[in-house]
Specification:
alpha+beta, Endonuclease, Chain A
Amino acid sequence: MVKRANVDRARSLRAEQTAPEARLWRALRNRRLDGFKFRRQFPIDRYIADFACIEAKLVVELDGGRHADQADYDSERTRVLEACGFEVLRFWNGELAGNFDGVVETIRRSLRSGSI
């Protein structure tokens, strides 16, 4: 069950998205990527996923510089999301900036491999 605090926090994060999140969101929103619906800042268990495609059970996380110092937290987060049945893809913001098309293609391949 999703806690009300997570729902409120997710709303706040959607309003304060980072530039890399906004860029990727433009590629994912409105079923632009092969017709799959993504949600941004979506609560799953005790975490809020950056982007989630419920039908494909896929979570996409963008990691900024602060994530370099929180590897244990991110590992636990990934473990919990996977335990909830999601595949988790993680990309560094720099990877998105330097290889946007490659990141989108990796997401597309993951969607296709898990599609019904």
